[in-house]
Design goal:
This protein is α/β, with parallel strands linked by helices and about 230 residues long. It contains ten helices and eight strands. The chain has one domain: 3-Layer(aba) Sandwich (Rossmann fold), CATH 3.40.50.720. Bound molecules: NADP nicotinamide-adenine-dinucleotide phosphate (NAP). The site of NADP nicotinamide-adenine-dinucleotide phosphate has 22 residues, from loops.
C-alpha cells in the first residue's frame, strides 16, 4: 500500500519494528520516511504521533495496517494465550489509540481519512485464530461507529477487509500447518483495493463479503447508533 501511495505522489511514512525491512523500503522507494516503532508500547505510540505531527503538518491520511495473527488453542488456557505476542494490543488497542492521537489533527485538515484494515475473519471467524478473528470484529465495529461519529466532518473513514493474502502474516504458523492455498498475492490485492479507494469506497470487501455486509448489518448499523449525538 505504501508503494501504491508513493507511486501516486504521496509523501509516505511507514512504521514497523523491523528496522532493516524499514530501511530496505525507504531505499527502494525514494522519499519514503521510515520510523521504527513498536505499536504495542504506549510511549512509542505517543512519541511516533508527536514526531509525525511535528515533522509532517500536512499529514492527511492515517492507515492502521499493522497486525499479527496467531493460532491459539483456547483449551490450553492462560499459558497458551500468553505464549506469543499480544494480538489484542497490536490489532485493536493500537488502532483505537493511534486514531485518537491523530484525530484532532486530521479534523483540522480540509480533507483527510482514516483507513483501518480489518479482515474477512472478523465477519466469519477461523477456529484456529480466535483472538485474531475477535480483534478484527472489534476493528470492524469500531470503524463503523467512527465513520458515523465523523459524518459531516472532513475525515472520511474507510475499512479495508482483505481476503487471504500471501504475506508474512502468521508465516511460521501457516508453514507449520502446511496449508495449501496461501492467498492471492499482495500486489494483486493492493491493485484492487487501491482502485476501490480511488473510487471513493467506504468499505473495501471483495467477493461474497459485500453480501455479508449488505444484509443484516445495514439495519443494525442504524438501530445501534444514536443519531442525535
Ligand atoms: N495476509 C492476510 O491474509 C490478511 C487477511 C486479512 C487481513 N489482513 C490484515 O492486513 C494487515 C497487514 O498484514 P499483512 O498480511 O501484510 O502481514 P505482514 O506481512 O506480517 O505485515 C504486518 C505488518 O505489521 C507490522 N507490525 C506487526 N506488529 C507490529 C507492532 N507491534 N508494531 C509496529 N508494527 C507492527 C509488521 O512489521 P514488523 O513486524 O516489522 O513490526 C508488518 O509490517 C494486518 O492488519 C492483517 O491482519 C491480512
Amino acid at each position: 500500500m505504501a508503494e501504491a501511495f508513493h507511486s501516486r505522489g504521496s509523501t509516505v511514512i511507514v512504521c514497523a519494528r523491523d528496522e532493516q525491512a524499514l530501511s530496505a523500503t525507504a531505499d527502494r522507494l525514494p522519499g519514503v520516511v521510515a520510523l521504527p516503532c513498536d505499536l504495542v508500547d504506549k510511549q512509542q505510540r505517543e512519541d511516533l504521533a508527536a514526531e509525525v505531527l511535528r515533522r509532517f503538518p500536512d499529514l492527511d491520511i492515517l492507515v492502521n495496517n499493522a497486525g499479527i495473527q496467531r493460532y491459539v488453542d483456547l483449551k490450553k488456557g492462560y499459558a497458551e494465550l500468553k505464549s506469543g505476542e499480544d494480538e489484542i494490543a497490536i490489532n485493536f488497542v493500537a488502532v483505537v489509540e493511534l486514531t485518537a492521537l491523530f484525530i484532532g489533527h486530521l479534523l483540522s485538515r480540509r480533507s483527510a481519512a482514516v483507513i483501518n484494515v480489518s479482515s474477512g475473519l472478523g465477519f466469519m471467524p477461523m477456529l484456529s485464530t480466535p483472538i485474531y478473528s475477535a480483534t478484527k470484529a472489534a476493528v470492524h465495529t469500531y470503524t463503523l461507529v467512527l465513520r458515523q461519529q465523523l459524518k459531516g466532518t472532513s475525515v472520511k473513514v474507510v475499512e479495508i477487509v482483505p481476503p487471504m493474502v500471501d504475506t508474512n502474516l502468521n508465516r511460521a504458523g501457516r508453514d507449520a500447518a502446511r496449508t495449501g492455498f496461501r492467498g492471492i498475492s499482495a500486489a494483486e490485492y493492493i491493485a484492487t483495493a487501491v482502485k476501490r479507494l480511488e473510487d471513493d469506497a467506504d468499505v473495501i470487501f471483495d467477493g461474497d463479503g459485500e453480501n455479508v455486509l449488505a444484509q443484516p448489518r445495514g439495519e443494525s448499523e442504524n438501530s445501534l447508533l444514536n443519531p442525535s449525538r
